[in-house]
Specification:
Length: about 230
Amino acid sequence: MSITQNILVIDDEPQIRRLLKLGLEGSDFKVTEAENAKQGIMEVVNSRPSLILLDLGLPDEDGLTVIKKLREFSDVPVIILSVRNSERDIITALDNGADDYITKPFNTGELLARIRVALRHTQPDQKTSIFTNGNIMIDFSGHIVKKSNEEIKLTSTEYSLLALFMKNAGKVLTHQYILKEVWGKPYSDDTQYLRVYIAQLRKKFEIDPQNPKIFTTESGVGYRMILQE
């Protein structure tokens, strides 16, 4: 990872910023710090970070409000680091533009993996229409899906759902976001509808659909397609 990638940490706890700085610089990231919302937004403008780690409990403004303000002028990836772990807070953060959500205390290895995923999505390969994740391949130009080089037949809805996951592999997607993107806004609350199609994808791509390792459930929030080796 290039050291030119700058991670902005917006957190009012000095010990958390110190811990993150040590871990991130040890993985060849540059780190910029901000201790409140106002300073954080200024740093986004001035230092143009590659990614933001944002605490929700800031002293001057709630982190959810910060996300909304950031999304008015920037699409920089935002990963929430917070002690708040309610489904409502997580869903609200993701639906307002956060890319991922990790609760404190966190595992540094997992955080670094989530950072790599978020950064990868900011640098898509525009020269190819083929996306792969492990043994799953989707060719958007040919509308072809393969698993271990064997073509898999999907319905149009299953294809649209898989395409959304492949383009966002590694990211948690909320129920509402998936339903809106695949079925449209009128279906944005029909989570039972979504559950049926997730089960269909698991049958076609998981070794053990009852113990999914590819399409995992983020309890109460949504689903994540795990990045495969």
